[in-house]
Amino acid sequence: xxxxxxxxxxxxxxxLARIMAHSSLIIDNLQYANWSENIFRQMSEGGVxxxxxxxxYHEQFRETVSNFEAWxxxxxxxxxxxxxxxxxxxxxxxxxxxxxAIFLGFQNPSPMEDDIGLIEVLxxxxxxxxxxxxxxxxxLATGCYEDKDPGITRFGKQAIAEMxxxxxxxxxxxxxxxxxxxxxxxxxxxxxxxxxxxHAWHPALRNKSHTVLKSLTDADGMLGFSLYPHxxxxxxxxTLESFCRAIADAAELYGAKHLGIGSDLCxxxxxxxxxxxxxxxxxxxxDFGEGSASDAGFPPQPDWFVDNRDFGNIAQGLSSxxxxxxxxxxIMGQNWLRFYDDAFVPAGSETx
Length: 352
Hints:
The protein is of the alpha/beta class and 352 residues long. It has 13 helices and nine strands. Strand 5, helix 7 and strand 6 form a beta-alpha-beta unit.
């Protein structure tokens, strides 16, 4: 029987998967769910100690501050389940207390507008990741849907240096090839691709070439494997074995210590949200980049990863394709924790 059938969240064996989930540190380095008490409780049930959540796609600074405020209200309402994370030690605290540390980030540099001084302000508010572009050309870099990629802009070079200084991680998940390679080269600190997969496994426009992944990991950066169906081979029908073998192939090429999970889980979001994600306010027509209007909505998740209670399925799948327990622990969370320890603090404060 295929693993995707054995480890489906609707089957009784999910109990085993959840026991396995709680045996390892779990960090998911990208989600954009329709947040609710139910989802926070599922994080707890799944043993998820930290999640990086998107709080801005196209919002300007003041709108983004409102999103920080909304999260403050969540933290006040559910202190037994979640709290805001700022450093790697908050992940350790969350794991010891059975809660989830929430790390806030942006999929676009729009919150900093055209003011480089806002980078430090946003970091002090708690932002820990910022993409230099989201599909389109930004002030800083080129998105992966553009026809031409002139690379990192003059503003982008200065923004990279300032992000390095304060401890705001550069994320190139939606950026084009040249811009990504230049960001890796220009950054004095390792960067992240928080949610994407190898293009060689599935040639989605958003997935990354061998050249990019080799450059990223040679510079001690991190790749978070995405479970968004458009990024998966065979889409919603992708099997657990196929996904885990893709991770195994990447580990052979780039080293398991540079790999983690960035699920891109958009749980309970209505299809209308995709229009905001991809179009924002810049277009009057549907422009989804990756193909036809059939890409407009949220496709079903693979049956072995429906929500935060299913991370144990991935841990078991990784073991089944030959990873050691130490490597599984790394991919499920320890690799991201090591990255957090060094990346979130001002330059010069990294651990030795």
